[in-house]
Amino acid sequence: MHTFLFELGMEELPDNVIVPAIENLKTSLEKLLEQENLEYGAIEIASSPRRLALSVTGLAEKQNDVEVCKLGPSVNIALDSGNELTKAGEGFLRKSGGSREDIYIQTTDKGDFIAVKYLQTGKICSEILRDWIISAIGAVPLPKKMIWKDKNLAFSRPIRWIVAMWDSQVIELDYMGIKSDRISYGNRYLGMDRKVTIPQASAYKDILRENRVVAVREERRGMILTQFEELFKDSIYRVREDERLLDTVCNLVEYPYAVIGEFAPSFLSLPEKIITSTISQNQKYFSVYDECDKLTNRFVFVSNGDPEFSEIIRNGNEKVVAARLEDAHWFFAEDTKRSLESYVPQLRDVVFQSRLGTLADKTERVEKLCAWICESIDLDETSRRKAQRTAKLCKADLVTLMLGEKEFTKLQGYMGMQYALAGGEDPEVAQGIYEHYMPRGSNDGLPETLYGAICAVADKLDTVCGIIGVGLMPTGSADPFALRRAAGGVVQILADRAWMMDLDLLIEQAFTLIQNSIVLEADALPKIKNFFAQRVSWLLKELGISYDVCASVMQAGYTCLPHLIARARALEDLRQDERFIRLVIGFKRVSNIISAKTDFGDADPAAFESDAERYLFSQLSEMSARVDDALEHVDYGRALLILVDFGKVIDNFFDQVLVNCEDQRLRDNRYALLAAIRKEFIKVADLSLIVVESETNGE
Amino acid sequence: MEFQKIILSLQNYWAEKGCNLIQPYDIEMGAGTFHPATFFGALGSAPCSIAYPQACRRPKDGRYGENPNRFQHYYQFQVIIKPCPDDIQNLYLKSLEAIGIEIRKHDIRFVEDDWESPTLGAWGLGWEVWLDGMEISQFTYFQQVGSVDIFPVSVELTYGLERLAMYIQDVPDYRQLKFSPSTKYADLYYNKEVEYSAYNFEYADTSLLFELFTKYEAESQKLIAANLVYPAYDMLLKSSHTFNLLDARGVISVTERAAYIGRIRNLAKNCANAYMAKYCEEGS
Question: Which of the two ends of chain A, N or C, has the fewest CB atoms closer than 10 A to its terminal CB?
């Protein structure tokens, strides 16, 4: 059995490119081995900033020989009168891959056909793999490519070497001028021109390790975690876990060595997130907390250098952190010399979006929309004042030095909160400023304060209405203003707060506020409403409502979110109930029968022929009154049970009455009766959209 | 190693590697990339290897001399080589050894950076080079200059000299840097930082600057029409610095900003195209 090794050596890849690239190569190799019917033991992958490597064990020397049999056209088409191949016969032979000697006549019960049979000798494995390397490099998906030497060779960063081996042999290949060899390179600190010779494919990982490269990413990850534990053994300090940061760091180093650094304790007077974002976002270091979960003046960085010189390396890293914190400290001190409110006028200088005006314009609109929301949820005067204050100040931090200098942009909202607190604003207003950006991502929570919630809804609505209003509707792949998240945030908050306001009215309000000063696209409003409708249906799914229940309740109106969700939940609770399923089937019959017609009069009781009709009619008006009562009390469970009860009456009706009778007058009157029933049901949900078991299994 | 010794060592190192040591350009600029030797050197297929120190001005970064890490006048050392050598990363690392940084004792990282100069219509891919966590250089493979796709590819190395020197001399403040055995950096530059900060932020006459910007722009266009690419490029440099001054005075709003940058980029594009047509075989 044989081992194959391929290593692509590059100048440092961006950290986010490495994992997708190696995964792509692995999938591609698996596919190849399957297509070529090559049995193997295992595929192993390795990746670091400077290399992507794959090895396969347990390979045979070559593919198995295969007997190929192919049936061609019938003899009278393939052969001419002189028993020579016709054009059609030649064509078959060419495609079959056989030669003239392999032809024979195959007799079947449909007649005589020409056929070929031959032994296809298996290809040499290393040749198959060599060809794969050449095609696979160019197929690696990369977000951004560059050229460096050859106009036709683009990659994420320059490719500098290729190791391709079959056991102890080099698989010779030339990829756009880069020739394969057995030479790799180890960690730079061991020497820049130091070549690492790989004697055989299976020795790859060990040889690299000797040269201070831990090639397998997962192994590096394990090392880092172990080192973290070692560093703080018997100590009250702990590294703050951060999976994403750890993932990134694994892609930045080849030979990880975790080291503790410190900064001056005086910097701890800064708001915590300023420190952690300096440490983690800029420098990719880990924050350290004590046993009370308080941030300490320590941090841990993962060095790629020689552990022997960690002191020197630590010294440098500490200086960088100190300089950055020094900067932040200066920004914070300068910024807090003034009140947060005093920054508001400067928002005039910052464009929100070229057609939608400045951040000052946006702030004014948000303030007005907040006032409208306060009104519609009937807030008391004090709360209204706080909501207005939150709206007025919510964007002011964007023009402070801390954010304006572009060093700490991720702290928007957080700095607003800190500066509001420093300036003596109401703590709830301060928190609201921070929270008005929530939810910031799919895993983020919703605002806890009322003011944060109001302001978040207003701000996001203004963005969505404005951006779509100027014609920048997001596409399937591009949503540069994150409008889906913003609109999703709006419906999440409305649901979370159980605000009864009408979503469409809210949208209209936001739209009008923009339109007062800016010309928006004529057909934008229905588009925006539809965009939000999709978010509402997304929310229902997030809440665990099945898609058919979602469609069914949306059909009955979706603009009052708390009611919509209550209806959906009530329906979801009932959907396994046997009686409910019968009701759905009955209702589908009702809907189907009258589906071709749109125009119905009132049913005329005098024209009823049977008791079943009269009974249905009398029960209908009674049912209607009870449903209305239940709806008035927002008791959708009860409303649905009333409908379920009514199902028996419908079943009885269908059992006894043939709706589609010959007599048109009779028939129309029955249609009108069914239409009246349908109308009652639709107040709660369109049950015809519910999928019942018998349908999914196929009747 | 004193500041001037760092420059001398880098010059010696790159001269030995075959670079032409040209000298700083005599017009204000925001970064060494603006030197015509780099801008025009990157265009066309003729080989090019040059190295030079360049004084750079970023009016907005002035702190009246008081911030230990920020100043409106500073030095870059710039290397540009076309076509780029296969072992350029090692060539660069060895240049660090030449100024006393032993690679084996440090953690050197090449941290992803997509470099872009919207003003020059230039971009490239490469890295910030980190020395024990500190950014000391910019390392870029140019892909476009003056909005022109370039080939062969040039590699550009930019050393931030004050930062490197602060690291090498182990001082926390630029003012304490030794410029030469007898002189501190502050002796030469502190007073200038104070005065220029005042000029940049307080005294620069904005209406004069607005007028100058328009005039330099018009002059550049006129010179392009006369097919005089080098003088036209000088006018671009002047308009670019004038814009930086206006920006520091805070009189250019965000939208206007993009428009001004677009105007300078347009001049850069004209210069690049005219240069290609006049001096490069493939451009004519």
Answer: C
Tell me the domains of chain A and their CATH numbers.
Answer: 2-62+124-210 (3.30.70), 66-120 (no CATH), 217-335 (no CATH), 340-542 (1.10.3210), 563-696 (1.10.730)
How many C-beta atoms surround the C-beta of residue A341 within 10 A?
Answer: 15
- Enumerate chain B positions whose Cβ falls within 8 A of a Cβ in A: 67-69, 83-84, 86, 89-90, 93-94, 103-112, 114, 124-127, 131-134, 141, 143, 151-153, 167, 172, 250, 253-255
Give the integer Cα–Cα distance in Å for A271 and A403: 14
Choose the closest CB to B106 out of A191, A192, A313.
A313
- A532-589 per-position pLDDT tens digit: 999 999 999 999 999 999 999 998 889 999 999 999 999 998 888 888 888 888 888 8
Measured CA to CA, the distance from residue A149 to residue B181 in angstroms comes to 43
Residue B51 CA to residue A654 CA, distance in Å, equals: 93
What's the gap between Cα A312 and its chain centre?
42
Distance CA A691, CA A25 (A): 42
Chain B residues with CB under 8 Å of A144 CB are 114, 125
Whole-angstrom CA distances from B113 to A13, A187, B148, B283 are 10, 21, 21, 30
Nearest to B62 by CA among B71, B53, B49: B71
Nearest by Cα to A550 from A689, A651, A396: A689
Task: Answer whether the bond into residue B152 is a cis peptide, omega within 30°.
Answer: yes
Distance CA A14, CA B128 (A): 11
**Is residue A47 within 8 Å of residue A12, measured between CB atoms?**
no
Q: What ipTM goes with this model?
A: 0.94
CB A360 within 8 A of CB A345: yes
Which one-letter DSSP state was computed for residue A300?
Answer: E
Hey, what are A354's tokens? 């070229």
Least Cα distance to A391 among A421, A356, A358, A365 occurs for A365
Give me the residues paired with residue A146 across strands.
Answer: A155
**Do B239 and B117 form a contact (C-beta atoms < 8 A)?**
no
Kindly give the pairing relationship between strand A51-59 and strand B48-57.
unpaired
Distance from C-alpha of B66 to C-alpha of B190, rounded to nearest angstrom: 9
Query: Which chain B residue's Cα is nearest to A148?
Result: B153
The candidate with the shortest Cα–Cα distance to B279, out of B46, B108, B36, is B46
Q: Give the Cα separation of B80 and B154 in Å (integer).
A: 7
Do A681 and A591 meet the contact criterion of CB atoms below 8 Å apart? no
User: What is this structure's pTM?
Assistant: 0.80
Run means of pLDDT, 10 residues per run, chain B, 284 residues: 97 97 96 97 96 96 87 97 96 96 95 93 96 95 95 96 94 94 96 96 93 97 98 98 91 77 95 96 64
| E strand residue ranges, B150-254 | 155-160, 178-180, 183-184
Beta-sheet pairing, A66-74 with A103-108: unpaired
Query: Which of left, alpha, beta for A348 (phi over 0: left; psi -120 to 50: alpha)?
Result: alpha
Which residues does chain B have within 8 Å of residue A158's beta carbon, measured at their own beta carbons? 141
DSSP A240: P
Q: Return the closest-CA partner of residue A354 out of A457, A466, A249.
A: A466
Q: Are A398 and A412 in contact (CB under 8 A)?
A: yes
Q: Name which of A50, A148, A193, A346 to mutate to probe chain B: the one with the most chain B Cβ atoms within 10 A of its Cβ.
A: A148
The terminus-to-terminus CA distance of chain B in angstroms comes to 48
Pairing of β A295-303 and β A286-289: antiparallel
Two tokens, residue B105: 């004792």
Output the six-digit token pair for B158.
């930019």
